[in-house]
Fold this sequence. Notes:
Elements: H1 2-36, H2 41-84, H3 87-91, H4 95-108, E1 112-116, E2 127-130, E3 136-142, E4 149-150, H5 152-165, E5 169-174, E6 177-178, H6 180-188, E7 191-194, H7 196-203, H8 222-232
Parallel strand pairs: 3-5, 4-6, 5-7
Antiparallel strand pairs: 1-2, 2-3
Amino acid sequence: MAARRGRGAAARRRKAARRRSAAVALVATAVLLTALLPEARPYVLAAALLAAVGAAGWWLWRKDRLTRDQDRRWREADRISAGRRTLAEVDAMTGTEFEELVAQLCRRDGCTEVRRVGGSHDNGADVVGRLPDGRSMVIQCKRYTPSSTIASREMRDLLGARVHFGADLAVFVTTTRFSRPSEKFAVQHGILAVHRDHLGLWNSGASLQSLTEVNGAGQGNPHHRARWKQAYGK
């Protein structure tokens, strides 16, 4: 592979050298024509102007293509990185890092105007933005230990944030689970409740909008909840 990269670099250098040689030959020809045939000077100048405009257009097009390719590679790297991130790594994040992760996942899914607003005066919101369909959203992020449970009062706080920001959708994202009353409250008031299992799906590539189809579900049957308590101590 290293040999192929070396051959590719050498080929690019040869191609660039040929372009420089062609440019030098073209300039030399234009100077010679101007010197030998003064009446051809306007045509030579016009041709030179057209060539300059064409070269500038080509340079802008190439720069735009390179920028787009670089942006595509960065986005692909973000997707790969997000897919490889484990929930154990998420558990080790700070609250701010978790909010940044949620904002990053929103951008990955095509959401726009996404920004983190978390802080002491966040009015109950940590991330705001717009869904791909244009609807506004407000997100509350809680990076709690898996043994914790989200209570209904925290859902009510998010409902107030939705009113404050005038958002179309409220989303609660957590690294743990919701109590039965809080999950019921979320469904009744149109709040998208992303618990630990759904966060794992979202982190692994599922879109935020696809989680609306399983809202209020996925926390398992009694057997699943018993194993949860055994694993996390509550």
